[in-house]
């Protein structure tokens, strides 16, 4: 039988999963990344995790067709190099070769968001659609596109940076050096920041009471959701504004990519309808009706597992070619 | 030897060209479309034009591998149907089959702008680039994308509608039913309309003098270029504003598609640096520097012939498959 391994190297955790050839997740293990100890330390840890997965599955190394790895940042999937991953502090790391050397299994890498969206397209909520636009709303806002079943990379593998579309309504400076990038407002960080600013401006809100009760804490996106559910007008305004901005950004992406389906994942997607209702309203207003009528919008189905399953399945395909 | 025929069915003219297998244009003929006489009339005319091309080339019908046809509007290239072409007044016309029946040559159709951009990518100014974003600025604003040598269609073959990205700065209602579409300002029509409005608002301009000298005429984009060259401040303002808007629109497209090259064609592209200088300035400000640094911007090299050469070459490829 034919097995695959998918690995997601995040800023906080490394997650490794063993799947069958259809992407069914059989075993999953998680370890802290400890990226600051250097890439060799992380790769040695991954070697041990792969051995553990083989033991858990009761299978030989030879039964694993390929390892797929998703890492954040800019990736060269053809050369197998992590070009730059800010939150791992990795530059020009030959990730695929280092893992292949340690495990003896053919290894392929790609960007973690692309792998997440690929997982949702192959085994998750976007299954069965030819043209998929997937976004993840977490610390930042990222996107990936699948066109007729194939990932769309663009020049320099840099396509899909929805989070760095500039919006005139957004006043914040972005880590990328520009001002007004969509992800500075549409993200967990962005939601928290907007709420924080409105509270500081003196607006009444239950969030102020929570802050005063725990002055060493700062407002999170989850707090804003909680306040929203208590009909807090400030929290409602922040969610409406964020959803509206996301709708405008997605309108650009829909008009240019013409996806059949948009799949939305990531931690901040937990805000759910608080964010999605104003998003849909704005999106419908901002795209030609022909796009809207044929568009499906779904939330990610696999949540935590989309990345490792996507990595495993993408690597499986690349190993065959 | 192997020949191809490319046909561009426009609102005004039908242009047919005979090329060799490499896309070299050998003969070209042009006739008025007379679309109002109905699609059968146009197809009969095209049959005669194809016969004329065969005679001009001194070749047998059997030497032509395929005919490629570009038509405006929404196309189903797989089924060979022109779904809707407003300026031909065609709905659900089986263009490919009708031309194949009359000529006896395998026929493939596609959207005219995609074929124009494909021509520039295969034989023109964007030759040698893997990821091409092509735009045509004419009566409207249209775009097409080539990704790793292949046309990007998206769901419903509707990708690339750059002209229907909404900009908050644009107050005009668009033919598509939305308000603020980029092409309502960034097009020959849009440039003329902006100039006309400013003149009517009472602003001094040489354009007013020209209008008063020929009151039955209205301002054209070419007039605005001419006034610009005479240092007319109103014309300079219109070109700067239009170029700025185009730069903002392209920034979205670059961030989402990550092209290696942008190729710009269409009649209004004759405005040249008057439009491209402010466009480049805005684009550089509105995209992550990593995109800007690897981006090339060129003007179309084949002008009138890109569409027929692109149609011929695309059909040649499809006939092989």
TrEMBL record, chains A, B:
SUPFAM superfamilies: Actin-like ATPase domain
Protein's name in the database: ROK family protein
InterPro entries: ATPase_NBD, ROK
Homology family: Belongs to the ROK (NagC/XylR) family.
Lineage of the organism: Bacteria, Bacillati, Bacillota, Bacilli, Bacillales
Organism for this UniProt entry: Paenibacillus baimaensis
Gene3D superfamilies: 3.30.420.40
Pfam families for the chain: ROK
């Amino acid at each position: 039988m034919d097995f695959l391994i998918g690995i997601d190297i995040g800023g906080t955790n490394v997650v490794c999963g063993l799947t069958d050839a259809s992407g069914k997740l059989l075993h999953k293990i998680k370890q802290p990344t400890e990226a600051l100890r250097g890439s060799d330390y992380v790769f040695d840890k991954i070697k041990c995790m792969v051995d553990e997965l083989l033991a858990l599955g009761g299978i030989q190394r030879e039964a694993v067709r390929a390892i797929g790895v998703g890492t954040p940042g800019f990736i060269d999937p053809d050369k197998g190099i992590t070009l730059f991953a800010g939150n791992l502090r990795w530059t020009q790391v030959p990730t695929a070769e280092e893992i292949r050397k340690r495990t003896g299994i053919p290894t392929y890498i790609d960007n973690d968001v692309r792998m997440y969206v690929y997982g949702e397209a192959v085994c998750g909520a976007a299954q069965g659609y030819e043209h998929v636009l997937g976004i993840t709303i977490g610390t930042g806002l990222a996107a990936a596109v699948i066109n007729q079943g194939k990932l769309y990379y663009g020049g320099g593998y840099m396509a899909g940076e929805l989070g760095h579309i500039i919006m005139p309504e957004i006043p914040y400076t972005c880590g990328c050096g520009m001002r007004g990038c969509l992800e500075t407002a549409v993200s967990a960080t962005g939601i928290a920041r907007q709420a924080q600013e409105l509270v500081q401006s003196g607006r009444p809100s239950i969030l102020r009471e929570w802050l005063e009760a725990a002055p060493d804490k700062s407002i999170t996106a989850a707090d804003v959701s909680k306040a929203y559910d208590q009909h807090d007008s400030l929290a409602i305004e922040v969610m409406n504004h964020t959803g509206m901005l996301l709708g405008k950004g997605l309108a650009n992406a829909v008009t240019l990519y013409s996806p059949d389906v948009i799949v939305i994942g990531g931690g901040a997607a937990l805000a759910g309808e608080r964010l999605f209702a104003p998003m849909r309203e704005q999106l419908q207003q901002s795209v030609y009706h022909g796009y809207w009528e044929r568009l499906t919008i779904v939330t990610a189905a696999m949540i935590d597992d989309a990345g490792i399953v996507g990595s495993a399945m993408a690597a499986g395909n690349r190993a065959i070619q």
